[in-house]
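Reopening this one. Same input as before:
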Amino acid sequence: MTEPFAPPGPPVTAVPEPAGPVDGPPPARFAYDVHTWKEIAHLLANLPVSLVGFTYTVTMLFTGAGLTVTVIGLPLLAAGLMGARLLGRLERARARKLLGVRVEEPSPLPWRGSGGFWPQLWLALKDPVGWRTVLYELMRLPWGIVTFVVTLTGLFVLWPVLPFIVRALANADRAMVRGLLSPSDELERRIAELESDRGVVVDTAAADLRRIERDLHDGAQARLVNLAMGLGLAKEKLLEDPDAAASMVEEAHGEVKLALQELRDLARGIHPAVLTDRGLDAALSSVASRCTVPVTVTVDLDERPAAAIEGIAYFTVSELLQNVSKHSGARSASVEAWRSEGRLFLQVRDDGRGGASLDGGTGMRGLADRLDAVDGLFVVDSPVGGPTTVTAELPWRDRSGRLAPDARTAKRASARGPR
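Same output, byte for byte:
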């Protein structure tokens, strides 16, 4: 038995499923759903919650301000702001549960690195999170009265359109939570970066001091001690054995030359004289001349940057050229330095075997940390087989220390490529 013929109808298009969860509740409808009931519960709870928060905030402010003439006033105010932080955390949790607002928790105060009692007290008193929560709690009492009265009245009088009224009031609540209780993402990120960079700078300075102390102790200091002993022996033999004394003075003269060379090398490692006297162009040419492979140096700078930026640029190129000499197996290399958009760019290329990385154990990670500590950037492009291109980017500061006007923004997400 054959089935009856059915004429072809219009093609049926499948409705695509949503790609992911929708942020926020669905549109308001006349029929009450679970999101509407959650918003109603939040709005009705606004009055008792805001009464508690307003009472706490007013009591804390008046008590702390009134007792500032005594020794306990400021500590009480600081403790009250810490309590306001706790109230803000509870409000964020309530908004997450009932309004679906995803607000990140602010970073805790950095007590460990703030010092003693008075620095910690000042840190708590100037806490922006605590003061924003105080402002939030002061605004909430009149708003809580309005939302409680409107929502409770709407349940009995305006229930057909109550979902739309509730949605409008809940959106105002969401805006308050996001505006006053959410941390500033950019500020929080920047604070975390600066705290990390400060630690890197301190560790780097301590490591440099230990290196200088070790080089002085093991090198020039040891040679100067031997020199003093040799001259003392030569002085004793001067009358009874002039030839032996002359030979010892000759050896001491050689020791003096070696000690002077080691001191020059050490001074070059701290801050080379050519960099101070003639600038980055001559200093990079000098360090390139000591590389074991031919290096082409191109510096396109119309003025000199600040001494600190100039020094970091010099030691970055110096370390990279040492890696070229020791690890790359290259036949040639090039160094470029130029200024663009308020940034100082350095680029070192070689035609070696490649394979360099920040975790390769060749000092790359230390260079990246040093540049990051001054808002710089360090990018390594080194495929296996070569060539290797390392780009470093530093903020441009002039000799007076002022940051270039177009470099006041945060550092770029990636370094600029070849010009």
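So the earlier flakiness isn't reproducible anymore. For the record, The chain has three domains: 34-183, 194-270, 277-407.
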